[in-house]
Design a protein that fits this description.
With about 120 residues, the protein is α+β, with helices and mostly antiparallel strands. It has 2 helices and 6 strands. Strands 4-5-1-2-3-6 form a 6-stranded antiparallel β-sheet. The longest helix is centred in the C-terminal third of the chain and has 10 residues.
Length: about 120
Amino acid sequence: MSDWVEPLGMRILIRKDESRQTTKGGIVLPDKAEIPNITGRVVEISVQIARDDDFPVKKYDKVLFNPSEAIPVDFEPDNVLFVVPIEDVVAVFRRGDAKTDEVRSAEEQEYEDPDDWDD
């Protein structure tokens, strides 16, 4: 039987990504550098969030979150887990084209040249 954590209420469980000590530009960050928002992977979501269409967060999504209200969970020795209120998730990373065909069609029609229209 394995142990697992189920967040309750409007919360999700996030595994924090590894901290980078060097930026892409080569700047070495001190050990105590505090970054206000951090990224991680969603490990589990509460039933309330799963049923709510207003929160498009799913298990395994990569998210950007504010750790100020996050509760650290000492559940796995090699991983840093946090129970995070959904309102502290500020972004979900997506791959591919973010715009739907319907939105693109509406934008294209808006910028269409009227001289190109058939009478």
